[in-house]
Amino acid sequence: MTIVDVAAAAGVSRQTVSNALNKPHLLAAETLEKVHAAINDLGFAPNVAAQQLRRRRASAYGFEVNPSGAGRMGHILDGFLVEMTAAAPDHAAHLVTFAPELDRLIEGYDRLLGTGLVDGFVLGDTRHGDPRPDWLLEQGVPFVTFGRIWDRPDLDGWVDVDGRAGVRLGVEHLLSQGYERVAWLGWPDGSPVGDDRRAGWLDGLTASGHDADASMAVESVQDLSQATAAAERLLRGLKGRGAIVCASDLLALGAIRAIRNHDLRLGTDIGVVGFDDTDVAEALSLTSLRQPLRPAAEAAWRILASGHQSRPHGIPGAAATDDEGDGHAERTALLPPTLTIRASSTPEPSGTPTGRTTRRSSTS
Amino acid sequence: MTIVDVAAAAGVSRQTVSNALNKPHLLAAETLEKVHAAINDLGFAPNVAAQQLRRRRASAYGFEVNPSGAGRMGHILDGFLVEMTAAAPDHAAHLVTFAPELDRLIEGYDRLLGTGLVDGFVLGDTRHGDPRPDWLLEQGVPFVTFGRIWDRPDLDGWVDVDGRAGVRLGVEHLLSQGYERVAWLGWPDGSPVGDDRRAGWLDGLTASGHDADASMAVESVQDLSQATAAAERLLRGLKGRGAIVCASDLLALGAIRAIRNHDLRLGTDIGVVGFDDTDVAEALSLTSLRQPLRPAAEAAWRILASGHQSRPHGIPGAAATDDEGDGHAERTALLPPTLTIRASSTPEPSGTPTGRTTRRSSTS
DNA sequence: CTGAAAGCGCTTACAG
DNA sequence: CTGAAAGCGCTTACAG
């Protein structure tokens, strides 16, 4: 079925059908109506390949998926892919997955681009030394990243979750629940995401008039036994009703194991807050920070729709501004996580045992 | 850049370039060589939209992703999507993700199909009462399912993991490690996947000359506290060196908690085997059955390549045969999981503390 | 506001 | 084995 069938059914020419689809304002209301009726009757949908060929754009974006997709970022990216996919129809676009060889990353991007199957890319897992942003910029290819472009603070075109604000929210929640001291279990220095989250811990303490001495922060790589050992060091200093905020749910799992090893009660004696609100958090009744993937996906589509990278701006090293204030589309979005509160941060048995409570972080 | 540019560079006509791409056997070796050289020099890739339009096929398949993607199947499907994506180039195809509204599922499939963006679909999460296979069959649309088509044993076109063989492998492993009794912690009766896995437990026991009395099997829904309680019931009957095989890693996590609650040592006193080899399994040193996603993806692509559903065959109710033995492409694949062995099933501290051991299930 | 023409980049018969 | 022609289903200027 083609546009010609619709034209016949509606009693107009094929060009009029095309206009009804692409430039409806050019048509008489009555004509438009007739065409739409015919389209609905026939269940017509334009052939996308023909549109792509003629328009010389695909309205599609490549989304890299990674076979070694284990580890922390993997799961979050899967969720982000789902939300990007769900929001795609609102932007008359779609996503094509691809899996470049990791030792020929740019070649994989180049190849997909060469087929004309996509106009640009969605990048996840941005990292130090990431070769993709510079290459794409050079090629003039539109893209959006999920995660700040850490090496290039002068670039826009990213969406990210404000881990710092999130962790601060976790600290404030714990203090409000009556835990007297709040410690930090994070990753070793040097990971941009981890350092950002750790800063949120300090923010939360100082904003509440607490002081943080160095003994209240320990670090561990993303490994359960190390995390457990690190948390045990923390417990010795955490007299009275203390709590631990963690950079990830896995680290939080280590904290929980340490608490059990010391015959303490999770929540009642020691509070714990994790990050990412994974299945594990739900299974363990662990309070955890949840990344707002749907808003992030919507922001990412807006950035893609706003087209190419705008001129690099700002002083390198300075924080990218969230709002240019000039009426143009915002090309960065820093979104606050929400806190999913469960028994691990409730000193007394929670009043709402089954209901899940969510509290929105304010980004004042 | 188009085929015309390549033709100019190679000093042939554009049709010859097209032939070099599509019917290389028609060309003189020398000519072919020249064209390939030009293609490489220019980094040419054919425009896919033009190919799709002319060939009247997309060589693309829709992959449904689900916003409520939490839960057990979600993660496995994410991994399957990745492997399908990685294998796609070998079949000159690609995947388009889409997220139909769940209360208008078929409409979502129909709509995507109508755009010509895809030729068919990859279905995950097959279930009782699934409306998709019948509809697709009716439409004559090619598809492959990840998971048997439980309601229609007469249909082929599926790949699945042999949970029954996998669990049997787990049982045999535990017995060989010296655990004297092996119990089952599974899901309530009635889920096809769960019932299949439970049958594997029985297989493993009877094949080794053990008998299974009903008290050695308990069930729990996919919830940690219920699983823990169920495992505790099991522990009372598991005198001596016993073990528990579980239908999922989450149930296994419940078993581990029960073991700790009873002051027993995981592995040393009580062995545990989970299913799916999730992050949690790795974090907890839990031996677990891993689904062979890469072979599954390859089999799925072969099925897609073999085209449409072959005539329904076999007697409904009889098990689908794995091999027609007639030289035709196999349109079903039942793949054995592998066992990732960790400390939870090793009575003595493992000899290879860091190395991960994998044992392949035989499907005799 | 509506209709006839050209063309997006390919592939596939069809003559030579 | 190679070259000229038609056409996949659209959109976009361009006359009327």
Automatic annotation (TrEMBL), chains A, B:
Keywords: DNA-binding, Transcription, Transcription regulation. The keyword Transcription applies. The keyword Hydrolase does not apply. Residues 307-364 are annotated as: Disordered. GO terms for molecular function: DNA-binding transcription factor activity; transcription cis-regulatory region binding. It comes from the Bacteria. Residues 344-364 have a biased composition (Low complexity). Residues 1-55 form the HTH lacI-type domain. This is Substrate-binding domain-containing protein. The lineage of its organism: Bacteria, Bacillati, Actinomycetota, Actinomycetes, Micrococcales.
